[in-house]
Amino acid sequence: MANNETRALSRLAGVFKALGHPTRLWIAKRLESGACCVGDIAAATAEGASTISQHLTILKQAGVVESDKQGKNVFYSLRYPCLPWLIRCMEARDGHLSEDPDEARELLSEQLHHLLRLL
Description:
Elements: H1 4-8, H2 10-18, H3 22-30, E1 36-37, H4 38-45, H5 49-61, E2 65-70, E3 73-78, H6 83-93, H7 101-118
Antiparallel strand pairs: 1-3, 2-3
Helix pairs in contact: 3-6, 4-5, 6-7
């Protein structure tokens, strides 16, 4: 049986589990610039609307995104505005954004300032 601390972290573990797919990570980054609907995301990823809908369902069940129905469309937005920051920091740390260590350090510094603005 898990102790109180690990039980308290189980919700966050679900968030990270839901982000365990490249398309869902991309969606989290995309939603940083504002809410959008399935069609917008599908057009940007060249994936089918049903596939994107399934990804968004997983993200919603984990509490990563929330939805707002407006007419015939459902718009999704991030519940954790720090997620895109976290993803970019991990990309920079792993060198996916830059092979130059100084540039990666600068990117991480920029991301830290961005996170502080979010808080």
